[in-house]
Design brief:
Distance between the termini: 30 Å
Radius of gyration: 36 Å
Pfam families: Phage_integrase (PF00589)
CATH topology of one domain: Nucleotidyltransferase, domain 5
InterPro entries: CB, DNA_brk_join_enz, Integrase-like_cat_sf, Integrase_cat-core, Integrase_catalytic, Integrase_recombinase_N, RNaseH-like_sf, RNaseH_sf
CATH superfamily of one domain: Ribonuclease H-like superfamily/Ribonuclease H
GO molecular function, one term: DNA binding
Helix content: 40-55%
Structural class: alpha+beta
Family: Belongs to the 'phage' integrase family.
GO biological process, one term: DNA recombination
Largest sheet: 5 strands, mixed
Strand content: 5-15%
CATH architecture of one domain: 2-Layer Sandwich
């Protein structure tokens, strides 16, 4: 009953009872006290304190303060926070005036003077509290760092305490592996370089982590940084600890240091950027292939501007340790561009032109393009249901600087500086010959198959050297010995290094100079995004920007003739020119992109991926208070829908789903057996359909879809079957089976028999669920009034009466076996113990109750497997209605929130 009384009712009861309690005798006080604790549900100590103190001495309930930041202020905070890529509030608030001014300048934010003043005076703690509901949980990745050679003894160690550089140019370097959940095979990497003084960060994609590839990427990074590189600090991996990089640093007069092994804090600056930039944007999926490499490079070209111009960060200034307390003092949050200008290492003209570029770029448009490139990269992620496993089905979406400009005077000046120089012409080479131009010995065992190996590296970069070597042994029996594997590994490493240089050449020269970006940056999209129905091509590995013909893809051949034919096709360059129809498709894609930029927010959801939409929906359901079992069921249904759309229809976007696909999915669920070889029932299919329908309705409400595909669809319905209740003869046999527990000592058998009979009567006379039986405690039994307290879903408590037989068997079990002598249910330690125990003396579980009914059915000779707690609950409901009970009381008795779950019992009355 305590759960039914509200606070006001309990306060009124206390006001009436407290004066009488203080004036009553001891015996009367005891009765009044027991009745007061039973009705209110208060703890005995707390109830005694309330009755013995006057109303003036009792604390008043705390009332929350009225909210100060509502409406437009909170919406503006979320909009600015999203434009800043959801950074921490302590980094956001110092940069807020600059960012609000930029958003207002480009027309994305409109605030009154009062709202702007309240937004700019908001504290970081308040902003964190208001943004708490919008944050998400992050994941972790795999480590692929391997120890380097003994050469690292020649490289000095530099710890995190020795980083006191104030001059820009001293960098920390690290690699991030895009391996997904499996670190085997070949996959892409990211080289992250972070300047210590300014926080300027550059990210470059790598096809592998061999020495030549890392050195070539370092060449590209030197061209991107707006200041010279003076020092380089790396971890102890073999990609950095090698003679090649050491000699290069000595030749270029770059200070080369390393951190201590297994201590990531020595590279704390770049490790933070790995999580805040690379993992947050790219994620933890597996990236494989040339097209994924090029798309990752386009993402980093956009982040080159966004991170360094619009992402503020704080630097630790002082650290004081006072016993167990650590006091950290940070400086004001600034962007890397602001720190670079304040460092005064650039000339006044260069600094002024960099600020002109900063004012010309619209941060919202730039961030929107980052999200588009991130979505395009998602299609190249392998090992996820939303990602595409075949990279040749998607085209390359390029970063376009022109789309980030607002058309203001600063933007026009920026464009004029951008086109002030012309890109130098690129000399075309043969697609595969340029990858094989290294000196080889006359005894090279692979002299006539390097073209084939190079084509495998280009078209199937995920294949490792072991797989390629076994394939060559199969194609050329008795030609290659196991000792030749090392030669193949060295050659493949050279091919990948030249492939990295050839493809990385298109991004060289992307650095911030006078007038902004170097003119090598593409200002118009070359191809449209994924999802087009027309045929698309894979970008070639050569710098000529031509398309590779699908004839260059054969990874499995039947003999030497097929290999020679493939080599002639690869070296001749046939089929590498684009046709007029491809140019027409390119123009159509550019027009469609321009249309998408002009459309409103209602069109943004049309390119939303199915996997991201499902994750957002489940997150919203979790925030709304759905129970874990409900969320698990929704997740199972939507996972089956996503798997069907991905495998059977090759759909990854929301707008591709129609009513026909949903109808085919429901048919697929009915006709296709599960992993256990069983077919799904009509009720299961109907429940999956209801979960999917709720998901699409949520998408329509959030304007991610125009219309739900379930609008004109007939939902599958399960024909309600007749309930076969527990017959009186079966009930008597169950009770007799409780008494015939053989194979046990007499005392234990009597205790088990009493417990089982009490459990059966409680289930039959209350209709409670199995989970509710497992949560029963000794304090939930009110023997004086013959009622029991049941904790239902959501910790809702209800009181249900027990019949005469139930009270009798429960009292026998409690008095003879359950309660120790001289103890009662009102003692706190006794009352918190479970009511029913198993034969081993442990708390009952759902599994133990199921096993108990299995044993009882076997002893009683009952063949119906349905006889159990659920059938006893149905029998109780039907008998209650047959005795003249109403549906509303039955709903309260069973703890059901929906009336539809109870109405089905009317057919049996």
């Amino acid at each position: 009953m305590g759960g039914r009384l509200c606070l006001q009712t309990r306060r009124e009861l206390l006001q009436q009872l407290a004066p009488q309690y203080r004036q009553a005798a001891s015996a009367q006080k005891r009765k009044m006290f027991d009745e007061f604790t039973r009705i209110t549900g208060y703890h005995r100590k707390y109830a005694m304190w309330l009755l013995n103190h006057t109303e003036e001495g009792q604390p008043s309930p705390a009332r929350p303060r009225p909210r100060q930041y509502e409406g437009t202020v909170q919406e503006a905070l979320v909009q600015v926070w999203n434009a800043a890529n959801r950074i921490a509030a302590k980094r956001l608030m110092p940069f807020l005036p600059t960012l609000v001014e930029a958003l207002e300048q480009h027309g994305h934010l409109h605030l009154s003077e009062a709202d702007r003043s309240r937004l700019l005076t908001m504290s970081a703690a308040t902003a964190d509290r208001l943004l708490r509901a919008h944050r998400r949980r992050s994941f972790s990745g795999l480590s692929t760092t391997r120890p380097g050679p003994l050469l690292k003894q020649q490289i000095p160690i530099r710890t995190f305490q020795q980083w006191n550089e104030t001059q820009p140019g001293f960098l920390e370097a690290d690699l991030v592996a895009h391996a997904g959940a499996d670190s085997k095979g070949s996959f892409l990497y990211t080289l992250t370089l972070t300047d210590i003084a300014t926080g300027w960060t550059e990210c470059l994609p790598l096809l592998s982590k061999c020495q030549d590839v890392v050195l070539d990427a370092l060449h590209q990074a030197r061209e991107r940084f707006p200041f010279p590189i003076l020092g380089l600090d790396a971890d102890n991996g073999g990609e950095f600890m090698n003679e090649l990089l050491l000699s290069y640093c000595e030749q270029e007069q770059i200070t080369f240091t390393r951190g201590r092994p297994t201590l990531k804090n020595d590279q704390c600056f770049v490790e933070q950027k790995n999580g805040a930039i690379v993992r947050q944007v790219v994620g933890y999926g597996r990236l494989v292939g040339m097209l994924a490499y090029q798309q990752l490079g386009e993402v980093y070209r956009a982040l080159h501007l966004y991170v360094n111009c619009f992402q503020p960060s704080m630097k630790l200034q002082e650290k004081h340790i006072d016993g167990k307390k650590v006091h950290l003092v940070y400086d004001q949050a600034r962007t890397p561009l602001q720190r670079l200008v304040r460092a005064k290492v650039l000339s006044d003209a260069s600094a002024q032109e960099l600020m002109q570029m900063f004012r010309a770029i619209d941060p919202v448009l730039l961030f929107d393009q980052v999200k588009e490139l991130q979505q395009a990269l998602f299609f190249h992620t392998k090992g996820t249901l939303g990602g595409s496993a075949e990279t040749e089905e998607c085209s390359l979406r390029r970063f376009c600087v022109e789309r980030c400009l607002s058309g203001s005077q600063e933007a026009n000046a920026f464009l004029s500086a951008l086109f002030s120089e012309q890109r130098e012409p690129v000399h075309e080479q043969s697609p595969l010959a340029s990858l094989l131009d290294w000196p080889r010995t006359c005894h090279d065992p692979f002299h006539d198959v390097w073209d084939l190996i190079a084509s495998w590296v280009c078209t199937s970069p995920e294949r490792n050297c072991g797989e390629m070597f076994r394939e060559l042994q199969r194609l050329f029996p008795e030609r290659f010995r196991p000792a030749h594997l090392r030669t193949l590994q060295r050659g493949v490493r050279k091919v990948r290094a030249r492939l990295q240089g050839a493809c990385g050449g298109q991004g060289k020269g992307e650095k911030m100079e006078a007038g902004g970006l170097h003119p090598s940056i593409s200002v118009r999209p070359e191809t449209a995004g994924c999802g087009s129905d027309r045929p698309v091509h894979v970008i070639n590995v050569s710098p000529s920007q031509k398309h590779v013909s699908k004839q260059l893809v054969p990874s499995r051949c039947l003999g030497e003739e097929g290999i020679k034919g493939m080599q002639r096709t690869a070296l001749s360059g046939e089929g590498l020119d684009t046709t007029a129809s491809d140019q027409k498709h390119l123009q159509d894609d550019q027009l469609s992109q321009g249309f998408e930029r002009r459309t409103g927010s209602s069109q943004k959801g049309l390119s939303r991926s199915i996997e991201h939409a499902i994750q957002d929906y489940l997150q919203a359901q979790k925030k709304s208070g759905r129970r874990p079992k409900t969320l698990e069921w929704h997740q199972t249904a939507l996972r089956l829908l996503q798997e069907y759309l991905s495998s059977e229809c090759q759909y990854v976007l929301i707008h591709q789903i129609t009513e026909a696909e949903i109808q085919n999915w429901l048919t697929f669920l009915r006709e296709r057996p599960t992993a256990r070889g069983m077919y799904r029932s009509t009720g299961t299919v109907a429940s999956y359909a209801r979960s999917a329908r709720a998901f699409f309705r949520w998408l329509v409400r959030h304007r991610s879809m125009r219309q739900t595909p379930f609008a004109q669809l007939d939902m599958p319905r399960e024909e309600p079957g007749l309930l076969h209740l527990v017959e009186p003869a079966e009930w008597e046999r169950l009770l007799l089976a409780c008494r015939s527990a053989g194979g046990m000592v007499a005392g234990v058998a009597d205790q088990t028999s009493a417990c089982n009979q009490a459990l059966l009567w409680v289930l039959a006379q209350t209709g409670m669920r199995t989970s509710e039986v497992c949560e029963l405690q000794l304090s939930d039994v009110d023997r004086d009034h013959g009622v029991m307290r049941i904790r239902g879903k959501g910790s809702r408590a209800r009181w249900v009466p027990l019949g005469e037989e139930g009270r009798y068997h429960l009292s026998v079990y409690l008095d003879r076996y359950r309660l120790p002598p001289g103890h009662d249910l009102k003692r706190m330690r006794v009352g918190e113990e479970p009511l029913f125990l198993s034969r081993e003396g442990c708390s009952l579980t759902r599994n133990s109750i199921a096993l108990l009914f299995g044993r009882l059915r076997k002893r009683a000779g009952i063949t119906r497997k349905e006889v159990g707690p659920v059938l006893l609950r149905d029998t109780f409901a039907v008998r209650y209605l047959q005795a003249g009970g109403d549906l509303r009381t039955l709903r309260q008795q069973l703890g059901q929130e929906e009336s539809a779950a109870v109405k089905r019992y009317l057919d049996m009355v």
